Amino acid sequence: MKLQKYSQMHPIKILLIDAGVPRFHKPPSLPSFAPMTKPSLPQGTRDFGPDTVRKRRFIFDTIRGVFELYGFQPLETPAMENLDTLLGKYGEEGDKLIFKILNNGLGDPRNIDKARAAFDRVLQGRNDKDLTERALKYDLTIPFARYVAMNHGQLVLPFKRYQIQPVWRADRPQKGRYREFYQCDADVVGSDSLWNEVELAGVYGDAYSKLGLDVEIRVNSRKLLAALAGFCGGESHLTDITVAIDKLDKIGPDKVKEELAGRGLRNSQVAIIEKYLSISGPNTVILGQVSELFGNDPAAQQGIGELHWLLEHAPAPLVVDLTLARGLNYYTGAIFEVKAKNVQMGSIGGGGRYDDLTGLFGVPGIPGVGISFGVDRIYDVMEELGLFPDEVDQGTQVLFFNLGEAEAAASYALIRQLRQKGVRCELYHEQAKFEKQFRYAEKKKVPYVAILGSKELAEDACQVKDIRNGKQSTVPASELMNMNFM
Question: What is the mean predicted confidence (pLDDT) over 217-236?
């Protein structure tokens, strides 16, 4: 009997939960359900099937292994943060990409007028807590800084953490750019030693090497950009300059100059920036020309000195790139970006030093530096270049055919023993023709099938076939446990 018809014949009270307040309501009738629509995904998000998940897990495990090798500890933070925690930390462009979450209970008649007024204020560019107080996290760095600020009294400094979790950005989806994606971060807080930058360069070098990726690790210093802002009228121009320069690869130099002019910089100031961006050559030549451009400016000379030191000590090759800006407000020193060679893709990693990020949360004086891996882009690059090992795709290693009740029971006993040895195996779910069971194994890319029929039962043996090359042999059950099923 349909619920709607039942409710009409037998009046009932339905408990509704609205804004966390239970109340009883007797509806005149229940609404009919809308017709089923074609299922779809939110734009910029993806499902991951078994093969994709295995490949992504290979990336995660490889990077996690390098993090652990360098002494970093795991950490996780919530998917959402208070909006005040995030706003104002990523610059003007970043703030526009934060996914805000509507408050609970906005459909409650008691809250409708407040919500309408709050929505009008949001349309005017102002946030309003009557409409939204929380947001999905934009990256892992600011939530980490919040964690450190809340727990610094209990942490052993320097604190080295790594974090592998999804983040969300209201960006325009395109190749290599998604609205939901994973980040893998490693950070050190509580130390201003440049050895931390050296270690993080080593993490990049080792991780990408283990993944089989040929990359270029680029480096610059926000201190050079601060000096550039000083030459162009003062620190107030730093954000304008870095945001514009950060778009250089996307929009080209002419559009960058137009944007700088649109942000209020004079032609003479834009000319200085253009001269800075035109410097090129080997690392030593670049740093020499930058030194000549900025003269004895203290910030510039400090940044140049730090870059020289990093180039000398880093275990992985670094390339000085003066166009690298990392358009986030919290960076203060060396900044990194990683590009994959031999493929058209944006950066697949980035980071830098942020010497007072926890000061944003009322706990000043805790320096930090960190890097991030762009896992989704790394996946796309590895897929395009065919870099995933063949064994990554392998799930079940051995499929036991189901040839009847007695045979299945004997097969299952062997399966349990093989699983104790770490061999991934399964029993076909029902008795069926050989052709059907072989087809199942082939579709699942199972390399071996084990056939246990009445003859094999009598001989305490098993037929094992490698379906990749067609080779088949009779194996005593006692030797089955010692076989290599890779």
Answer: 86
Q: Give the residue from 132, 138, 139 showing the smallest Cα distance to 98.
A: 138
Q: Torsion angle of alpha carbons 259, 121, 358, 61, nearest 10°?
A: -80
The answer to whether 218 touches 325, Cβ cutoff 8 Å, is no
Domain boundaries, the chain: 51-385, 394-480
The amino acid present at 356, given as its one-letter code, is D
Amino acid at 415: I
In the block, residue with structure tokens 């009294």: 153
**Could you confirm whether domain 51-385 is CATH 3.30.930.10?**
yes
Q: Which fold has domain 394-480?
A: Rossmann fold (3.40.50)
pTM for this entry? 0.81
Separation CA 337–CA 319 (nearest Å):
10
Residue 136, Cβ neighbours under 10 Å: how many?
Answer: 20
Give kind and range of the element (H or E) at residue 396: none
Token reading at 212: 């089989």
Lowest mean pLDDT among 209-218, 244-253, 299-308, 452-461: 244-253
- Residues 6 or more apart whose Cβ sits within 8 Å of residue 106: 112, 115, 131
User: Quick one: which of 151, 130, 164, 134 has its CA closest to 59?
Assistant: 164
Higher pLDDT, 287 or 111: 287
Q: What number of other Cβ atoms are within 10 A of residue 41's Cβ?
A: 9
CB atoms within 10 A of CB 425: 21
Q: What is the pLDDT of residue 357?
A: 81
- Residue that is written with structure tokens 């090129």 in the block: 280
